[in-house]
Amino acid sequence: MKSTAAMGAFVLLWGSAAIFTRWALDHSSVMAVLILRYGLALGALLLIGLSARRWLPQPGTRWRVAATGLVLIAGYSVFYFQAMAHGITPGLLATLLGIQPILTLAAFPQSACSACCCRCAD
């Protein structure tokens, strides 16, 4: 029951993100919304770190974790918010993000296929 509630909350938050982003950008600037978003995320991470009594990733993985966070989280958010600020509608943006795996497979069929576990390229 607990995992179903967590999954439901995640889907609800993720699915409504474009609507709330559009609303936030109608009332503020991209940078102000991103600073608020990252401030809330930092608070959540501090609470998780406090409860787990662990503040950093395992030694040897820290640079990889930092680079992944910078590219996947910061880069994604900046481009997402900038697209909405420049007039892309929430529906179009959600559709583009939803078909992103299909577009990636269409653009790079061999590299995507050779990376999977079924080895269909062999």
Notes on the structure:
With 122 residues, the protein is mainly α. The protein has helices spanning 2-27, 30-52, 62-85, 90-98, 100-107, 109-115. Helix 1 crosses helix 4 and helix 5 packs across helix 6. It is globular and about 40 Å long. The N and C termini lie far apart (42 Å).
Write the layout of secondary structure elements.
Blueprint: H1 2-27, H2 30-52, H3 62-85, H4 90-98, H5 100-107, H6 109-115
Task: Note the total helix count.
Answer: 6
Q: What proportion of the residues form beta strands (DSSP E)?
A: under 5%
Which value, in Å, is the CA radius of gyration? Answer: 18 Å
N-to-C CA distance: 42 Å
**Percentage of residues assigned to helices:** over 70%
Largest sheet: none
Listing every helix as H and every strand as E from the N terminus to the C terminus, the arrangement reads HHHHHH
Strand tally is 0
The unreliable regions are none
Give the helix/strand class. Answer: mainly alpha
Q: State the shape.
A: globular
- Integer average pLDDT: 81
